[in-house]
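Could you show me some protein's one-letter sequence and the numbers that encode its backbone in two labelled lines?

___
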Amino acid sequence: MRKRERENPCGVCGHYHKYEEGEVCGICGHRMPVGSEQPAFSVSAFPSEILSEFLYLGSYDNASRAELLKTQGISRVLNTVPACQNLYKNSFTYHCLQEEQKLPFDDAIQFLEQCERDRARVLVHCMSGKNRSPAVVIAYLMKSKGWRLGQSYQWVKERRSSVELSQAVYQQLQEYEQKIFGPIENIIPVLPSFSSTGAPSFSFGFPKPNDPVTVPAFNSTGATSIFARPDLPPHEFTFGAGQTPSPPNLNGSDVAMDGS
């Protein structure tokens, strides 16, 4: 028996490495922090669980950790970036979206629905797990759960706080919402509240069909929520039939479509 096989597995992640000696796990990337007895995990090591024991959201780094995905029971991978290589075709079932600019939501959702029917756990990823892949997951929640865009975004953002949708991708989601539910009429947005430090805080919870819409801030320097107007009574802010809010004029070029 080799020396590595004689070692006791780590009590935190279950993999074989010298955790107490500060050795970084070669599979999940966590280690004992200096001067602490609590485990430290690499932020990018674990994908975010969006729907229990079924739908996971992450980055290309997550998708490259085959052994970690297997420990989580993931057997299928939805790759939302055509340029990303599918690394382990002998170990996972892959489906890759081929569109660069326009996200093919229906194609992605068809694959995810098949995974759900087969009771297979699936990882949806892009390069950073912040833009393209969250948009696909949000579209899936709208289609499969009947949740509106704001509710679906809120659900995903709560489970993966690093999500930062670009203006272009959010506009695609708005169009997809109208495709599913029809024109948006008289929707009252929920304005985010701000703490004394200036950081926005949201109230998260299990979304209901008639909940008001929460609108994200886009990932561009200086961009704010398109509904962030001070001292505006929420019940007096409505949209006419068939109208949707115009997105802000962002500084600089659009954020890259791969979510990075």
About this structure: The radius of gyration is 20 Å. Residues 167-181 form the longest helix (15 residues). Residues 1-42 form one domain.
